[in-house]
Amino acid sequence: MNRNKHQKLCVLGAAESGIGAALLAVQQGFEVFVSDYGKIEEAYKVKLHNAGIAYEEGGHTTAKILDAEVIVKSPGIAESTPVMKKIREAGIEVISEIELAYQYKGDSKIIAITGTNGKTTTTSLIYHICTTAGLDCALVGNIGYSFAQQVAEDPKPLYVLEISSFQLDDIKTFRPDVAVLLNITEDHLDRYDYRMENYIDSKFKITANQHSDDVFIYNLDDNIIIKKLKNISVLSQSIPFTMKQEVNKGAYIKDGQMMLKAQEERVSMNIYDFALKGKHNQYNTMAAGLAGASLNIRKEKIREAIKTFENLEHRMEPVTTINGIEFINDSKGTNLNSVWFALESIAKPTILIMGGIDKGNDYSFLEELVKEKVKAIVCLGLDNSRIVNAFNTLVPVVETSSMKDAVGEAYHLAASGDVVLLSPGCSSFDLFKNYMDRGNIFKQEVKAL
Q1: Where is the Mur ligase C-terminal domain (predicted)?
Q2: For the chain, which domains are there?
Q3: Which tens digit of pLDDT belongs to each residue from 139-171?
Q4: Which residues make up each annotated binding site?
Q5: The model's pTM
Q6: Nearest to 312 by CA among 293, 292, 291, 338
């Protein structure tokens, strides 16, 4: 999209994506102003200062924001905030950071991954497949490093991009060469007027601008995805992955073997050779393998990468074993599907630590798995009432309001051969800065036992 130089651009929100957007925008000749309602981290202030970018924190100067011709909205900012309502009323163009980065990424290719669960794991595995094959690429997006800052400071011929629904909400022209949609389950409905259809529409924006020579990789076993595909037109080449049937083009698992074909080469591999364990990770691995094959990466390199991939921090991360009790950090499990997947992959009796800011969770979803796998639940949050009410007739439930107490209670309840699993199923912001802070403090308290 061609823009006039010296156009006024305001970035709302000064975290990773906002800072990246500001740095790219000023590089491209925009007159940039950054506004954050909260406090800006010192490291980000240094970046803004060094780039000569004007900013404010601790509130929004409405007149200055409304003077902009383009707004880049950080993904954490809801449409319901007063400043966004004023921007919409004024009719100012609003885009996301990934849209801004896309407009200046040149001829580089993009693999974009979205879904309710498994995004980070799958994105990281795709990146590992690409780097194992020797491709010059960058791992960016919701996974932690700003897409826009990467484009500004160290452009690459290929970007592997994790995208949330919030980032997709404000795209205009963003078009991935390979789009991956892992699954869709209820999450973040408070941002979508509590209408599941709005959330589904947001996820499917990943395909909105694709052409016939692009690729769309999707989960054939996800009923919500399949229902939506019957009612919309996707122009790209649709390639499914599944565990329920054999497909000529795509990926499936049968009798412990993954069969995968996206281009001419067919890849076969024993699932017991996968570095990632658990049924949900078999889906993630199929999706990642298809993404690699769509780039014509050789099957030997795909197999090698799938075997050698190392699990991510805060995602089913082994911490240590104390007196025969295994401690696992799944702090990134911020919704109930993540908890379900975590429990499903564990074969030992489990003490489950969960809780935080509830997103309107329906805990009945976990009842059968809790009966089957869980010895006790330790609640960790300022308000544990909904978890207590959901499970106290099934298993012992203990309430705590600090990580130190939660780890101590879980250790007391566990015996040799058990697992203590932190998989909160909730947001972290009642007691922690974010899921990483929660996971790090969990590991500290475990090691202090």
Answers
A1: 314-424
A2: 8-95 (3.40.50.720), 105-308 (3.40.1190.10), 317-447 (3.90.190.20)
A3: 999 886 899 999 999 999 999 999 988 899 999
A4: 115-121
A5: 0.79
A6: 338
